[in-house]
Request: fold
Amino acid sequence: MGDSTTSATTSSKAPLAVASISSEQLHQALNAQSGAEKRALSYSLTIHQLFCQTLQSKLPGDRILADYFRAHKKHGSKDRRVIRESLFGLFRWHGWLRLIPQKNASQQAITQQWFAQLALTASLESHPWQDIVSAWRGFACLGEPAIIAHADSDSDALKIKQAMLEAAFPGQGFPLTALAPDWFWAHFDQDSDKQKHLVESLSTRPPIWGRLQGISLAKAQAKLAKQEIHTSGSDYFADAINLGHKSINLNAVTLYGEGKLEIQDLGSQVIGNICAPKADESWWDACSGAGGKSLQLRSLMLRQDKQASGSVVASDIRRKPLEELAKRAKRAGFSQISTQPWQSDALPVPAQAFDGVLVDAPCSCTGTWRRNPDMRWLDDASAITDKASLQLDILSRACEAVRPGGVLIYATCSISPVENQEVVEAFLAKRPDFSLQTLTHPFTHEATQMLTVLPYQADSDGMFVAKMVRQV
Reply:
């Protein structure tokens, strides 16, 4: 369940271990004796390689990891788990780990710092492979961590972890805001409580959220339980299902194969529910990707009427995602979804022909940083500032497909006003024939015309959505 940052590669706070350790140097610096020490050394070499490759290639860590596992099939499930969780844990806590003071710049010190980062990450994440963690601590000449007290909340847990690092490195501060890059905070709400809550959410992994199609929650849970997949429902949407935090082989899940389960974050599900398509309406998903929201729109129609006559047209500039959508729609038995790729700047669909148009615009994806912690350190401020003109251009073109009296939805998985409120305001300044509609935030129940879902509000990704109506 995933751009290189200049701050991560050039800042004085960047971990020197990333650029300075080779496999030969690690072997020379250590004399691994026990089986656990040898495994710990082997893991450390692999994780170091993947960590460096992610930063240097500017590619998402999950893609780097998937390519590595395809090429190295010798790894068993435990190996994969240690490598995967250590890698993404390093990125999750990178903002603190790069603050660890280094006594000198000798090769031995640099090597020890790398093992310290691995060991501290394991403690911060409460990883269970203690024999490996102990070996990393030994390689780093690092003492045992302070006893972690029981935490009753994410806030308590983060404070305890912060205290653990401060005890290990007296005199070195580990501010909460360091867990996200400095450039990001210039584009987020300056309210200190919101910043604290956001950092708390960024320090935890979100659950895997799914969306049910054509089956009740109770029946879905019963079927999933037979496959030892333990789930819970949502307080907000009847068709949402929480699949927990464990990795799931979807191809082995019967409900998924039957088209009755789609993986879709709860924050993303907000968008379709704001669209609220009626059973007989025609909708255009203008930036559909592989069509998660197209499927949701059609599913919402069918929940109202099993014979719903409404339809969804999905468009994207890339053909492969549209081909994937066609497969997903077939699996779900959704015959009223069709695809129409963007082939030029001209609309790929008729003008003023749709009851609703959804523009889920390309964005910085800052709302998905919980799920993709490497992205915090792979991007720089341009990820936010460079996209607004493209977003406004797409919105301005796609709006022509809305019929008079129809609705236009603008959405992103960003939590930056530059990509959200400011784009909508710029659009409305040019198009007075569209007006904002007041929305009710599904998680906070507040009335708003610019709805931002923050990750800590319902244990989800972050999202933005605005709904506009075209004058008759």
In short: The longest strand covers residues 402-412. Residues 209 and 265 are 5 Å apart (CA to CA). Residues 1-19 have pLDDT under 50 and may be disordered.
